[in-house]
Design goal:
The protein is mainly alpha-helical and about 220 residues long. The protein is built from nine helices and no strands. About 65% of the residues lie in helices and about 0% in strands.
Amino acid sequence: MGSIKNLLITIVSLTSLLQSTTHAFVQAPSPSPSASQSLLVNPNNILGAASNTVDNLFKPSLHILDFCQGTENPALCAETIAPSLEGTFDPIKALETEMEATFVQSKKVAKIISEALRNPNTDPRARGALEICKSQYKSIMETVNDAVELLNQQNVVDAYYKFSSVISDQATCEDAFVESPGVTIPFSDESHTVYQLGGNCLAVMDGMVNNRNRFLLV
């Protein structure tokens, strides 16, 4: 219970910070962040859920806080899932929502990669790494789709093993830039968010499959 309270405090702090930032934007608008700076902060924008006010963004239930405990990024997990769940808490639906967020964020990265490859001003030294990343993110999106289909069949075990390649594909893309002297990855923040969302999904499924959380398979 103490860890859940700590997570709730973290989310409340995020809400307060976001409210303060929103107020500052009203007083003095600032330019929109670049593609490489923007993060998956508002899950409503990503999943297409209805959004009313900043106050409504981060109010996860205790069920959601419990569900997100032990994930790669519990606060991001709760922020992503909360707007899409109503009524009785359904752990499978919550997991599917986090998988969908992983897909949408991966699609965002894939778009950045495609734009960079089409841009004649892109550093030639980065093109090899970008081509590798293009292939890896195509694989990630296909894998997430397959895992969601398995989840819809209540086959969490196979979804878990299928989804595990998401993290390795994401790492392969980042490694391609590490191994390319003189260039840096132009979507570092977005890539890290894919890692966190994917890690959240894997942590939840690992708990279900290996009986390490109370959302056990029946």
